[in-house]
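Weekly sync notes, structure subgroup
Attendees: PM, AL, DS (notes)

Item 1: joint prediction request from the bench team. They want all two components modeled as one assembly rather than separately. Inputs as received:
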Amino acid sequence: MMTDLREILLAEDSLKDVELILAALEDHKLANEITVVNDGAQALDYLYCRGSFSSRRRVNPGLVLLDIKMPKVDGLEVLRILKSDENLKTIPVVILTSSREEKDLFESYRLGVNSYVVKPVNFHEFMEAVKALGVYWGIINEPPPKAGKASA
Amino acid sequence: MTILPAMTSGMRIRQRLPLLIGGLILGVIIAFSFTSYRGVNDAAFEVAEDRLRSLTHQLAETFRVLARDLRATIQAAAQDPSVRDCIRTPRPASYTAATEVLEPLVPPRDRAVLAVELWNARCERVLAVPQPMESACANIQKEFKDYGGKPDSCVIAPLRPSGDLMIYPVIAAVLEEGQPAGYLVQWRRLGWAEQARELAKLLGTPGGCFLGNDRGRIWSDLATLVPPPPVEVRETSQIQRYRRENNQRVIGLAERITGTPWFVLIELQEEVVLAPGARFLQRVTAIGLVLLAIGLGCAWLLSRRITAPLHSLTAAATAIAGGDYSRTVDIRTGDELEELSNAFNTMVARVRDSRQELESRVRERTAELQERTAELQERNAELDAFAYSISHDLRSPLRHIDGFIDLLQKHAAGMLDEKGNRYLRIVRESSEQMAALIDDLLSFSRMRRAEMEMACLDLDNLVHEVIAELDRDSHGRRVVWNVGKLPLVRADRSMIRQVLLNLLGNALKYTRPREEAMIEVGAAGDAGELRGQVVVFVRDNGVGFDMKYAHKLFGVFQRLHGETEFEGTGIGLANVRCIISRHGGRAWAEGVVDRGATFYFSLPAVEKGN
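Output from the run, pasted for the record:
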């Protein structure tokens, strides 16, 4: 059933949020491997297998969870670069943010985001949301065929 | 003098002044002409009467002298012995002698003498030279006695018509021993009438000169018989006024001619008498018209002199009222009008100066205001960004608190006692409350910045939609909704939906203690300062509020009830006011503690036909 579980890239600057998200995913027994980066620059390094990620396996992640407000390069910028890259644009991207602002929503969808989720304050709701995300994108959703190798 | 101003009160000065002056001149001319004319006429009459008296008297005197001479001639002839002899002894010899005496009394050249006759006492014609006057048969003796008097006198008898002529006899008695034995009669026509007429002409009598008997209706114009004058002129020596048969008005005076039974009457035509008056009136009228024309011309010039400066003042005032302060009035008449124009120019200068000052002040203030507005807008933007980032940045720690408390609960479930768990629960509840506050703050901030999509909006539908949504959350309660007819408005649908959700939700919330909640939604009229707007109200029978705190109702995070009584963050009504004022309307409330509250808001109405 879970024969080819794809990696999940989580870009989130708040370590506490990372811990909560991981706890949620763990709580729901998602077995996907999760890579955590703390800013947009690292996320791009990961996607392009450079910097500290130059030695990783050159396979695109099955899902990218992006926070918007991040140091160095923000989530929307990462989304823009990712969706304008032929090799990367097929990767499902979910914005996971505390912003409910219209302009953020609008900009995200304009750039081709696959899903936009507002982090609920309530922990249970948060857990449910993360779990639903994990289940949907990690398990239910069929990834695009021949998921290309990460570009050099 | 009070009629003219009253009549001319609606006129312009340019017309009124000439009219007044013309009226005055006309009045003076008419009064002057009338009195002068009367005076001239009176004087003319006086002169005419004097002339009449003197003429009449002169004529009477002339006739008297003529008559006296006639009488003397005839009387002298009557005393001739051959004449007496002829009457006493009528023989051919005495006839011849008498004829010789009488013939000189009938001179052939004198057309005035017709005949001379000799009568005896038995009233028989004894002798006639050249032939008897058959046409004028008369009782000579009787006439002599009637008009004569003494036997030795000679009388002139009354006039009588004979054919075309007016004739009269001159009778003298032929005495025999002091007694009349017969009569010598000379028949005359008014032969010397022509002379008399000449005389009258010479005296200058326009009108007529008449002779009449002292008795009867015989009157003559000195030649023929004429109708008598219509009034009795003989009785009195007064001047009479009357109308002649040809309808001419005349003045006449009669006087007895001494020594005859005649009256002389002289008439003057009034027309002739009054001719100088008429001429005077004509002249005065002509002069009056000229004066009137001059007066009107002068008055017109004068009024122009007065009104022309007034017109230029009016024109300048109009221009200045239109905003042209460069206009001045130039009047150089050297009188009050020039003073007025100078004062006017000074006033205009003052007004211009103060207006310029005012304008520059307004400009300064406007600039200041614009600066302030820009500053405020900047501040507002900053505040909005601040609120945005705060609410964002506040959410994360809250989420962490909530999340880790949950993790802690799971992790330390067995280790915490009842108290510890309660503390954890309180922490969680607090974080949830703070999250609600932040969400509301965020929505408020969003509402202030969001773009509005104005469209024609049917409030009726929207209210029912909101009620349906609220009803889902009011299970187990008896709520009576009473929705009146609501108008169309021009507004942003989602924002007004939020307003209705807040107001109707509040109504539902604050009627919770009531067994049966009564909530009324309706439209009030547009009147007063809210003309052109639609006023909608939401009335409930809930717990109401104290009007003392009405001003606090619409503030952010302002609450009039405790958390334990009614939940809520206190942002709903702040949102309502913000949305309504962004629509150009107004929101307000009325309430009585425990009797319910009414919330009103106004929105621009959709004009009919749109």
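Discussion: Chain B touches chain A through 19 residues (CB under 8 Å).
Action: AL to compare against the crosslinking data before next sync.
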